Amino acid sequence: MTTTFILVRHAAHDRIGQFLAGRTTDVSLGVAGRKQAERLAAQLAGEGIASIYASPRKRTNETAGAIAAAAGLGQVTRAEALDEVDFGAWSGKTFETLHSDSLWRQWNSMRSRVRAPGGETMSDVQRRVTQFVETLAKDHDGRKVALVSHADVIKALVCHVLGLSLDAWPRFEIAPASVSAVAASGGDMKLLMLNREVPEHDETAHLLTARR
User: Fold this and answer.
1) For residues 190 and 160, is the Cβ–Cβ distance under 8 A?
2) Which of 59, 65, 199, 202 is the most buried (most CB within 10 A)?
3) pTM of the full predicted structure?
């Protein structure tokens, strides 16, 4: 049996692209982000999602809540393994400030080796999210499971599935409120969809087409 994982990046907050939100606890969706989440939820409503798991961050829970409500699911399960990268001392800083930090520049050129100050390496992130997905695949065999997380976490998993170095992260995008999909079967995983964004004017067509 195959377990299908619907990988959702949270919808946009109002300062996206301006500062590194990281694990800041009070970052919620903006007006545009709430509309994104509603459109996404409408398009995933008919996909037969059996369970939904989300990072502990407020923005992911708001996105997951919209999906759960549209799908008729009563509960979103909090999953620490889906949490944002622990950026340590970088969390909450503007990108303008970060760009002047030599360690930040190293992080973006060699993510396979560099550790965020007081935080994680991308290998740490990849290990926790991959182990989580492997465990869920056994527990949810034959079902569709939605995982609402963050761009770098999803990228870490995709790199694992495709056998890419973590330094390949700039080669593909994971946009706000986008959907990617991975199929897991018998210990193997393959990518079904990458960075499918929510159409702004079509709320009727199903977004996910994760079919064999």
Assistant:
1) no
2) 59
3) 0.92
What is the C-alpha separation between 11 and 107, in angstroms, rounded?
Answer: 25
Among residues 39, 36, 47, the alpha carbon closest in space to that of 73 is found at: 47
| pLDDT for position 202 | 55
Could you tell me the sign of the dihedral formed by the alpha carbons of 13, 17, 18, 19, in that order? positive
Q: How far is CA 168 from CA 33, 88, 109, 176, 190, in A?
A: 28, 22, 9, 19, 17
pLDDT digits (tens, 9 = 90+) for 96-145: 999 999 999 999 999 888 999 999 999 999 999 999 999 999 999 899 99
What does the block give as tokens for 67? 């999906």
Structure tokens at 167: 């330094």
For residues 24 and 18, the answer to whether their CB atoms sit within 8 Å is: no
Report the SS3 class of residue 208: coil
Gap between the Cα atoms of 126 and 107, Å rounded? 15
Roughly how many angstroms between the first and final C-alpha of the chain, as a whole number?
Answer: 12
User: What number of other Cβ atoms are within 10 A of residue 183's Cβ?
Assistant: 19
- Residue 116's nearest CA partner among 136, 89, 148 is 89
> Helix H segments across 72-190?
95-98, 102-109, 122-139, 151-162
- pLDDT, residue 206, reads 53
pLDDT at 26: 82
Query: In the chain, which stretches have pLDDT less than 50?
Result: 205, 209-212
29 Ramachandran zone, left/alpha/beta (phi>0; psi -120 to 50): beta
